[in-house]
Write a structure and sequence with these properties.
Mean pLDDT: 79
Number of domains: 2
Number of helices: 20
Structural class: alpha/beta
Shape: elongated
CATH topology of the largest domain: Rossmann fold
Low-confidence stretches: 21-26, 118-141, 404-408, 543-569
Radius of gyration: 32 Å
Number of strands: 16
Oligomer: single chain
CATH architecture of the largest domain: 3-Layer(aba) Sandwich
Distance between the termini: 118 Å
Strand order of the largest sheet: 2-1-3-11-16-15-12-14-13
CATH superfamily of the largest domain: P-loop containing nucleotide triphosphate hydrolases
Largest sheet: 9 strands, mixed
Length: about 575
């Protein structure tokens, strides 16, 4: 039996051979598609060799320095690239709310390689302002004498701080209006020299106003949210006052009213008083001090003083202070009134309602740093997605690796927690691992808490476990690393914590390491990452002075200066 091939196979064979197909309609042969048998780069090299030349090389562009360095390279962003305001950014933290993202990380890299003495805006500042600041960074900035400070004040500054030879950006903008008697709201990033910016001109104004009473009635008042900050401001003001023959006293909570009464009655009487709200509230209630002779009132770290923890106490103190409503009242020789100064690194949205109760907002001069609420360009900030059970292991590893990498380093480490109980619990774990450290949290007794931060600054221990009471205003030029063991609850808290490194006067740039565990932590991290990619300020924390504050009820904050908030001794 003969084998017969199917007709369609015969047709295909005839087409391949190019012969005619009998009995079928003739068709035009289709044009064959080109078949690439040799890779194109190899073909180009062969043709180049045949011509006697060299083959062209394909250049692959390198990303260069990075602004965002992610574990997954597709989410890294080169330094030369800026994401537009309305452009969708490829966030490395976009999927971090899923449990499979644990172990992922990214970092905001340094764009400046030195600690800036003068802030230079990296995006939205006018070209004229940027050129002015860059010109002043080269040494052409005005000296303190050109700002209107008297030689006597300059001599006191030289004796107290010989290393301070040139005013910072904030000091150049704040000192002249304060010398002219203007009310001032100064909003500038942490570590920019705000304390000297108000102490120098206000102490000079004290020299022109004589004491009119013999009782405990200070002519200057600086209100601060914590005892640690009050001790620090008192030390700075005291060193300046010593050269000006002005007496500086300090009162804080947790020491009993006997100690407060003794400080207020010591001779010579205080020309400048540094106080926490709770201690001063008690002293006013018991009539141990009078504010009738105030020449100025400063709210240092005003964003903290105006939140729910202290707002009621601050309103009472402002009500007892003779704040000038206009310039004429401030210069009245028979009944002079006080100058109001608010200083902070962040401000709540709307402080106008409180200020309008004591003065006219039209007389308020505002000094705002161009880098306010921005991610610091000279501090590397790393974010690590973890499970809660993994944080202790990562913390111990970070502390031990730092000691191995920098055995001779004198830099210090701040480890921030969100509660006092976490500080104590971590302290026990570090004790088990033989890691020397100090602890600072608001629930400590005053006797135990006194001097802890000074010991840390003096180098007694290089590791400090603390709550947010160590994030406001305290000078921390020794700190090289900030670890957010608990991610801060707000962007304001993150700004203050990150501001403990890379401060004016620091010898190292410093870095920040943040552990991200909760879904609500991821929301804040995404806002920080997006602001860094767009080179813009962090959202939701801009200061609007003329918008009213929402109604707030007083609620003590146990992680801050709880003794100052309480009513009892």
């Amino acid at each position: 039996m003969a084998f017969r091939a199917p007709s369609h196979l015969l047709l295909l064979l005839l087409r391949r051979l190019g012969g005619p197909c009998r009995g079928l309609a003739s068709e035009e042969p289709r044009e064959a598609l080109p078949v690439i048998r040799i890779p194109q780069p190899l073909q180009l090299r062969r043709e180049a060799r045949a011509r006697g030349g060299s083959a062209p090389r394909v250049s692959v562009p390198r990303p260069g320095p990075l602004l965002i360095a992610a574990r997954r390279p597709e989410f890294s962003q080169p330094l030369r690239l800026t994401v537009g305001r309305w452009e969708r950014a490829p966030l490395a933290s976009r999927g971090w709310k899923h449990r499979r993202s644990r172990g992922d990380h990214f970092s905001i890299e340094r764009t400046h390689r030195q600690v800036p003495a003068l802030p230079v805006e990296a995006g939205a500042v006018e070209e004229k302002a940027v050129a002015e600041e860059q010109h002043e960074e080269r040494g052409a900035g005005p000296a303190f004498a050109a700002l209107g400070l008297q030689p006597r004040v300059l001599d006191a500054l030289h004796q107290a701080a010989p290393a301070v030879v040139r005013p910072t950006w904030v000091q150049r903008r704040a000192i002249p209006p304060l010398l002219r008697g203007r009310h001032l709201l100064c909003a500038a990033e942490t570590g920019s020299g705000k304390t000297l910016s108000y102490l120098l001109p206000l102490l000079q104004r004290l020299l022109r106003r004589p004491r009119l009473t013999t009782g405990p009635a200070p002519r200057g008042l600086v209100l601060v949210p914590s005892r640690e900050l009050s001790e620090q401001v008192r030390a700075v003001a005291g060193s300046l006052g010593q050269g000006l023959e002005l007496c500086v006293r300090e009162i804080g909570g947790g020491r009993g009213m006997g100690s407060v009464k003794q400080q207020l009655s010591l001779e010579p009487l205080a020309d400048l008083l540094v106080a926490t709200p709770g201690a001063l509230w008690k002293a006013l209630k018991r009539q141990l001090v009078s504010l009738e002779q105030l020449c100025f009132l400063v709210l240092d770290e005003a964003d903290t003083l105006l939140d729910e923890s202290f707002l009621e106490l601050v309103e009472y103190i402002l009500g007892k202070s003779p704040i000038a409503e206009n310039l004429e009242e401030l210069e009245d020789p028979f009944n002079p009134r006080a100058q109001l100064v608010l200083v902070g690194a962040t401000f709540p949205e709307g402080v106008g309602e409180l200020l309008s109760k004591v003065t006219d907002l039209g007389n308020l001069t505002t000094v705002t740093s161009p880098r306010l609420h921005c991610v610091m360009p000279h501090v590397r900030q790393k974010f690590l997605r973890l499970k809660g059970s993994e944080k202790v292991t990562e913390l111990i590893q970070a502390l031990k690796l730092r000691g191995e990498d920098n055995p001779g380093s004198s830099g210090a480490i701040l480890v921030f927690c969100n509660s006092s109980s976490t500080v104590n619990w971590l302290g026990y774990i570090l004790d088990d691992h033989k890691i020397p450290h100090l602890r600072l949290q608001g629930q400590m007794p005053a006797a135990m808490r006194a001097g802890i931060f000074q010991s840390f600054q003096n180098g007694t221990k290089d590791i400090l476990l603390c709550t947010d009471i160590a994030s406001r205003g305290l000078d921390s030029t020794r700190v090289e690393l900030v670890i957010n063991y608990d991610f801060p609850p707000t962007l304001q808290d993150y700004i203050h914590r990150a501001g403990r490194v890379g401060r004016v006067g620091s010898e190292v740039l410093g870095s920040v390491l943040s552990f991200v565990t909760h879904r609500w932590d991821v929301d804040l991290v995404q806002k920080i990452e997006l602001a860094a990619r767009r080179r813009r300020s962090l959202p939701g924390i801009k200061a609007f002075v003329k918008e009213p504050l929402p109604p707030i009820e007083l609620t003590p904050d146990l992680d801050r200066d709880t003794e100052n908030v309480g009513i009892s001794n």
